[in-house]
Amino acid sequence: MTEKDANGTHVKERVIHTPDVEWHDLPQFPGNVKAKVLREDPSSGAKVMIVRLTVGAQIVPHAHSSAVQHYVLEGEYESEGRVYRAGAYRFLPPHASLAPITTTGGVVMLMVYDPVCSSEGAGGSDATVG
User: Fold this and answer.
1) 65 burial type by CB count under 10 A (0-12 exposed, 13-18 middle, 19+ buried)
2) How far is the C-alpha of 58 from the C-alpha of 123, rounded, in Å?
3) Alpha helix (H) ranges present in the chain?
4) Architecture field, domain 24-129
5) How many alpha carbons lie under 13 Å from residue 107 in its C-beta half-sphere?
6) pLDDT means per 10 residues in the chain (130 residues)?
7) Left (φ > 0), alpha (ψ -120 to 50) or beta: where does 92 sit?
8) What is the DSSP letter of 80?
9) Rounded to an integer, what distance in angstroms lies between the CA atom of residue 6 and that of residue 104?
10) Measuring CA to CA, which residue among 49, 83, 52 is closest to residue 64?
């Protein structure tokens, strides 16, 4: 499958200088949670973004239809009694329930949302909060 841009043109390579990408609020989560979306393919649900949680922010329990990967770039977060520090990689399989993510000192992580299998439909990167 080849990804296409909004004009239907095949995308072969994309280079993004992340400091030039604006942070956007993720209002579905309490506190100051922001993201820089680096890649998003609405047709497959695939998404790559950098997520920043400041002190006291949290990501509430939710689930995704696709697999989700976390790579901690800076700081640390806690979930299910484990601490994930800079350099930690975490893989969550499709339909896994994600426990709360909290941080006492702030965290910046890369999140990769795998494409949703065609039998499940697109939108796997959209969290179901609750």
Assistant:
1) buried
2) 22
3) none
4) Sandwich (2.60)
5) 26
6) 61 86 87 90 90 91 88 96 96 91 95 74 40
7) beta
8) T
9) 39
10) 49
The helix/strand/coil state of 121 is coil
Contact indicator for 21, 36 with CB cutoff of 8 Å: yes
Among candidate residues 68, 6, 12, the one with its CA nearest the CA of residue 43: 6
Work out whether strand 62-63 and strand 82-85 pair parallel, antiparallel, or are unpaired: unpaired
Q: How far is CA 38 from the centre of its chain?
A: 10
User: Do 50 and 110 meet the contact criterion of CB atoms below 8 Å apart?
Assistant: yes
What residue ranges do the domains of the chain occupy? 24-129
For the whole model, what pTM was predicted?
0.77
